[in-house]
Amino acid sequence: MKKFAIYLPQFHRIPENDEWWGEGFTEWEKVRNAKPLYKNHVQPIVPLNENYYDLSDVSVMKWQYELAEKYGIDGFAYYHYYFKGKLLLEKPAENMLADQTLDRKFFFIWANHTWSRSWEGEKTELIRQEYGDEADWANHFDYLLKFFKDPRYEKKDNKPLFCVFSSAFREKYEMFSFFEEKCKENGFDGLYLIEAFDNVSGGFDFPKNFLTCVKDLSKDTKAVYIRQPLTMEWTLYSGMQKRIFRKVRNILSRRKGKHIVKYVMKLDANKMVDNYCRLQFPKTEVDLIQSAFFSWDNTPRHGYRGYIIKPVDQKHFFKYMDRIKDSEYVLFNAWNEWAEGMVLEPTEQNGYKYLEWIKEWTDMNG
Fold first, then answer.
1. d(C-alpha 223, C-alpha 287), whole Å
2. 26 near 92, Cβ under 8 Å?
3. Cβ-contact 214, 286 below 8 angstroms
4. According to a count of CB atoms within 10 Å of the terminal CB, is the N or C end of the chain lower?
């Protein structure tokens, strides 16, 4: 099993965030200002030694890479933000590319959604995702190619891994056929395209609706990313319960945004693991990319509109990893999603606990 941690290239200043959120803004502002919303709610989450780092500093990345190596993380899956020629938060990946001493594997997850003021409960667009035509695809591919050619970029069967986060867009089929051919022109055997399951056809039911969703994949897609915790979350509900739950959650979210209802929904990660481990994974022609998480708390971003998944314990984490141990890849969600409470990096509250669990499980399983 190759273990990759999803990497958020935030936490450094960019002009767009200065304009949209205020001068000097990074997500550390959300993390620092988080408040407990009920009794025993652990907020704010504090980095160990109050290490509120700046990702434009390459020495920070060196520390992260050394930590990943020590605890058995094989590489990072960098979020990639590209809007028809416009790049955002690209500096950490470009700094990594320029520094060969940062010796871990990596690949990109294209977070190709439109940015809006969703943190504030608004739908005001900040930057729209558009896909353009073949000329635009060529520009995008040319940018990616310098990363694909790096020996650290993860490849399967001489095909660079590339994950698309939101796969329901009209240009997908032609665009990735174009990428496939461009990869072959540049010495690869194609593109190892991965689509995220929970966004394929808007489906959440796993494995019930999975095979139906697979029909909507690009013909060039080689794998499906079973994204957690969102896929696992829906094992807590079935049939009508899911529809009612979604409707009530959406209504409450709107009202909570206006501070009418002050209630935080809390789910149980251990129960989610138990339910998920009872499922039979479907057999398909595409590979399954599994993922794992430890906790979730997006109230620093959304306040009462957020929700919480109480942390998994070590016994259930090992149970889950044993269930997926034959997978070629696992993506840990996430290395540094501080404002969503998904963090492998050390915290004042947990120390190095989650990294230590990963290393212990890895050592036990060879």
1. 4
2. no
3. yes
4. C
- Is 217 in contact with 284 (CB distance < 8 Å)? no
In b/e form, how buried is each residue of 101-122, taking b as 16+ CB within 10 angstroms? ebebbbbbbbbbeebeeebeee
Q: Are 326 and 26 in contact (CB under 8 A)?
A: no
Residues 6+ apart with CB under 8 A from 199: 165, 166, 167, 168, 227
Q: Which CATH architecture has domain 2-365?
A: Alpha-Beta Barrel (3.20)
Check whether the bond before 207 is cis (ω within 30° of 0): yes
* Segment 35-78, tens digit of pLDDT: 999 999 999 999 999 999 999 999 999 999 999 999 999 999 99
Distance in angstroms (rounded) separating the CA atoms of residues 143 and 160: 14
What is this structure's pTM? 0.93
SS3 68: helix
- Kindly state the helix (H) or strand (E) to which residue 159 belongs, with its residue range: strand 159-164
